[in-house]
Amino acid sequence: MNFDLPPDVEAMCEALAGFARRDLNGPDPFEPIDFRRRWQLAGKQGVLGATVPEEYGGSGLDAVAAVALMEALGSGCTDTGFAFSAAAHLFACAMPIVEFGTPEQRQRWLPRLSSGELIAAHAITEAEAGSDIFNMGTRAELRGDHYVLDGTKVFTTNAPVADVFLVQARTGGGFFGITAFLIEAGNPGLHAGPPYTKVGLRGSPTAEVYFADCRVPLDCVLGGAGAGASVFTGSMKWERVCLFGVYLGAMRRVLDSTIAFANDRVQFGSAIGEFQAVSHRIVDMVAALESARLLLMKAAAELSGGGDCEVSSGLAKVAVSEAAVKIGLDAIQLRGALGVTDGEAETLLRDALPSRIFSGSNEIQKNNVARALGLGRKRPVKHR
Ligand SMILES: Cc1cc2nc3c(=O)[nH]c(=O)nc-3n(C[C@H](O)[C@H](O)[C@H](O)COP(=O)(O)OP(=O)(O)OC[C@H]3O[C@@H](n4cnc5c(N)ncnc54)[C@H](O)[C@@H]3O)c2cc1C
């Protein structure tokens, strides 16, 4: 397999890493005005519409180039939460509109989502429907020429700042009883809560979203009535592959500084990198990163080729998130006491912990891969 990037994409990645280093780092924790300021800059730089077709203001990149671009973003932007927010916006909100939107919906939303004028959020998880996602209780009732939504979503990335919400609600029974809606912030029936305080990804605002008698016209339905589950699985395909490029970049950045530290730090008269226990630990970190990267690029190649990347994306998601936790832990250990003071090693570990949970937890990914191997639970899962 050849994952060499075309020279123009290489140049774009290099420019993005430098730009992100200079302009995208922000305060911890999240601060809404500064977040939007950086968001607009990221839009101008082409980050927020990277995979959106050019006719809608994007760059039309394929998934392999998008992973490379996200890797550059993650390496330059030390605020991994901000990079995560940008990637969630692009892959879990804009891409479903690209794939499922009507021409009017694409025209209405994509240019402004790509330019950085708007921020999007995808709300599906509920308090009682996390991994068991299709067990959701939020309902959308058809009343003449509009739907009315009632319910509560939790853990919605970008909710406190979002201008548009992609919302999944139950309109009937079973898999085809879920419908996706595009709902503008400012709708009197939609209210986003305050950001949670999180251990990691603190630059990414996450909140609950409440729907009470939320009326939306029929043209807000994305993908047709009953297509919500397909919209969701389509969005996860993009998120699971391309968003995780951000973590490749963050790991690379911390690995580089760890190697520099091991060459600088002297104990017993020599740089600690000369001790085999230290150098081997670093080699293991490199192996974890490189193997996770290959799995992610393989999944991206499958996605770009239009293949079913269910297994490859699940394996890649597990590999990247576990590598990020491992590299965070090892980078702390190699810095000694300095590792547990505020800094990039402990930040990587904190930012890595949620990556084992979102986009479908690692346990759920393994269930999916097991099922593809003919293993796992045979009983059909019951939904409302
Ligand atoms: C930073 C962050 C951002 C997020 N952003 C969004 C967002 O933008 N939009 C959105 O809708 N959601 C979002 N989520 C929610 C995320 O999708 C859910 O947290 C995730 O699906 C897991 O659901 P849960 O937290 O309810 O855990 P649960 O489903 O309660 O799982 C708890 C534990 O049990 C395990 N488990 C559950 N079922 C099984 C099973 N069948 N087999 C094996 N193990 C199982 C899980 O793996 C986990 O370890 C976000 C989460 C985080 C952390």
Give an overview of the whole structure.
The chain contains 11 helices and 10 strands. The N and C termini lie far apart (44 Å). It has 3 domains: 7-119, Acyl-CoA dehydrogenase/oxidase, N-terminal domain (Butyryl-Coa Dehydrogenase, subunit A, domain 1); 122-231, Butyryl-CoA Dehydrogenase, subunit A, domain 2; 234-372, Up-down Bundle (Butyryl-CoA Dehydrogenase, subunit A, domain 3), CATH 1.20.140. It has helices spanning 7-23, 32-44, 63-76, 80-100, 103-115, 228-243, 245-264, 276-304, 310-334, 344-352, 362-372; strands at 120-123, 139-143, 146-157, 164-170, 178-184, 190-192, 206-217, 221-222, 266-267, 270-271. By secondary structure, it is of the alpha+beta class. Helix 9 runs antiparallel to helix 11 (362-372). It has a 4-stranded mixed β-sheet. A 4-stranded antiparallel β-sheet has the order 2-3-7-6, covered by helices on one side. A two-stranded antiparallel sheet has the order 9-10. It binds flavin-adenine dinucleotide (FAD). Residues 88, 122-125, 130-131, 155-157, 201, 206, 354, 357-358, 360-361, 363-364, 367 line the site of flavin-adenine dinucleotide.
